[in-house]
Specification:
- It is built from no helices and 8 strands.
- Strands 1-2-5-6-7-8 form a 6-stranded antiparallel β-sheet, with no helix packed on it. A two-stranded antiparallel ribbon has the order 3-4.
Length: 168
């Protein structure tokens, strides 16, 4: 996390799973490599709906005139909510492959695998102490390693989510 509320992440994950089948005298190898680059940014005290946290307080003077003063809530009161807007953007590349190795004939063949490219965006906003509003967008593109097994696909998800929490 940097001083200007920007957060960056870089991840690399690798997986290798070997399975020995005694009945068919084969070794199945599954490889997976993931790269994830992500950024997040927080905007402090963002007013989405321009709600005013100040309230009007009426005071009476001794002469009978009423005046209105604007008073902010004290820092320790229950109504003090951080209306922060959190933005996250993740970009990931995943390559996975499965190889079947026949022990008797010493032959190897690719059985499955794909290359997946994913873009994720999310924006979280705290409406109140118990209510959080989230907008999200995900796009994932899959290209198969073997064209005979499946077709290239692209999926897109987007939406608005409202989370009500009773535990805060």
């Amino acid at each position: 996390t940097f001083n200007n509320n920007l957060t960056a992440k870089l991840e690399y994950r690798t997986t290798r799973v070997l399975t020995l089948s005694m009945t068919s005298i084969e070794i199945a190898e599954a490889l997976s490599r993931d790269w994830v680059v992500g950024f997040a940014y927080r905007i402090n005290n963002f007013r989405l709906f321009n709600w005013n946290s100040h309230r009007q307080v009426k005071t009476r003077k001794t002469s009978g005139e009423e005046t209105q003063q604007t008073a902010a809530r004290p820092a320790g009161s229950k109504g003090n909510i951080n209306h922060d807007l959190n933005l996250r953007l993740d970009f990931s590349l995943r390559r996975q492959a499965s190889i079947v190795r026949d022990i008797a004939t010493m032959m190897s063949s690719a059985s499955s695998g794909n290359s997946a490219l994913k873009l994720s965006f999310a924006a979280d906003y705290t409406l109140s102490r118990l209510l959080t509003l989230t907008f999200y967008y995900d796009r994932q593109t899959n290209r198969p390693l073997l064209s005979s097994n499946s077709y290239p696909t692209t999926t897109r998800d987007f939406g608005l989510s409202i989370r009500f929490s009773l535990t805060r």
